[in-house]
Amino acid sequence: MAGSSLRPHVHWAQRHRELYLRVELSDVKNPDISIADNVLRFRAQGHGAKGDNIYEFQIEFLEPVEPKPVCRVTQRQLNITVQKKESSWWERLTKQEKRPLFLAPDFDRWLDESDAEMELKEKEEEKINKMKIESRVPKDPFKHLKKGYLIMYNLVQFLGFSWIFVNMTVRLFILGKDSFYDTFHTIADMMYFCQTLALMEILNSLIGLVRSPLIPAVIQVFGRNFILFVVLGSLEEMQSKAVVFFLFYFWSIIELFRYPYYMLSCMGIEWKPLTWLRYTSWIPLYPLGGLAEAVCLIQSIPIFSETGKFSLGLPNPLNVTIQFSFLLQMYLIALFLGLFVNFRYLYKQRKQHLGPKKRKMK
């Protein structure tokens, strides 16, 4: 590599407020670009007309410019944007009348003064039209109230499920397997509160407070509440089963990521680790939660059959009785269909938030 410094080919163009410089260097390394005393100084290593070398140049501008150039390096060239201090059209780029040999017009971006004025006018008209359109859109007077409600709702749910998770974890470490069998009596009140409050998610989707589709919300909320209130809440025999521990544990872990994610989204904040957890943790946890719900149903079917609870006897010559246990068997099939619907929805959400971004073609 030669030790001498060389000048690269530089192409320039202008608008009323900006100057554009395109430096013909590829594989640029360590660019040093600064503006002082209205003089732009450039020095960088790259591959130009004289091969791989150190290239440098300086330009004293015709009129005052802002001292903060914006540089964008690509594999094939380096682009510099300089803001003029005053909006005007320059007759040339440099203070010296004779154009430097390394400097030439950038015909890809070149406009004469009348074309540039027309372009500027079109941009201003576009900006004015955009402002007019935005001003026509009616402002929601309850926007901040709705946002505050959603933040508080997600915060309360997060605190509730956090209490459940921490309480169950501490009891597990202290009591071991014995904590499995009295989970319902210890945790049920808080779970009742959280799952009753979760009915608001259906209402939020129904009235358009959130953009979440209605069907997945209905499937999850009513599915959980059916297990909690009907199966567990009505059968004392089920309340001491070990499966209740796993059911409540999986439900609470899922919500530890979901509710804080929604709460931060309402504030316009995105924390990437939390986003990843929100759209990844469901992959193992939803099947495990669905399995725990299925086990609850399977274990409760013989009890409902024996007690005849919630069974419906019809007054007819054949003395037909609709057994609630039979309805539970039908619901068990519907449970897995509902899980499939939610899995599909969550998979699409994961692709949308974590999938590769489509690059815009220039």
From TrEMBL:
Transmembrane segments: 149-170, 190-210, 217-235, 241-261, 282-304, 324-347
Membrane topology: Multi-pass membrane protein
Matching InterPro entries: CS_dom, HSP20-like_chaperone, Tyr_Pase-like_PTPLA
Main location: endoplasmic reticulum
Catalytically driven reaction(s): a very-long-chain (3R)-3-hydroxyacyl-CoA = a very-long-chain (2E)-enoyl-CoA + H2O; (3R)-hydroxyhexadecanoyl-CoA = (2E)-hexadecenoyl-CoA + H2O
GO molecular function: very-long-chain (3R)-3-hydroxyacyl-CoA dehydratase activity
Lipid metabolism keyword on record: yes
Top-level taxon of origin: Eukaryota
The enzyme's E.C. designation: 4.2.1.134
Keyword Endoplasmic reticulum among record annotations: yes
SUPFAM superfamilies in the cross-refs: HSP20-like chaperones
Family: Belongs to the very long-chain fatty acids dehydratase HACD family.
Protein role: Catalyzes the third of the four reactions of the long-chain fatty acids elongation cycle. This endoplasmic reticulum-bound enzymatic process, allows the addition of two carbons to the chain of long- and very long-chain fatty acids/VLCFAs per cycle. This enzyme catalyzes the dehydration of the 3-hydroxyacyl-CoA intermediate into trans-2,3-enoyl-CoA, within each cycle of fatty acid elongation. Thereby, it participates to the production of VLCFAs of different chain lengths that are involved in multiple biological processes as precursors of membrane lipids and lipid mediators. Catalyzes the third of the four reactions of the long-chain fatty acids elongation cycle. This endoplasmic reticulum-bound enzymatic process, allows the addition of two carbons to the chain of long- and very long-chain fatty acids/VLCFAs per cycle. This enzyme catalyzes the dehydration of the 3-hydroxyacyl-CoA intermediate into trans-2,3-enoyl-CoA, within each cycle of fatty acid elongation. Thereby, it participates in the production of VLCFAs of different chain lengths that are involved in multiple biological processes as precursors of membrane lipids and lipid mediators.
Full protein name: Very-long-chain (3R)-3-hydroxyacyl-CoA dehydratase
Taxonomic source organism: Pavo cristatus
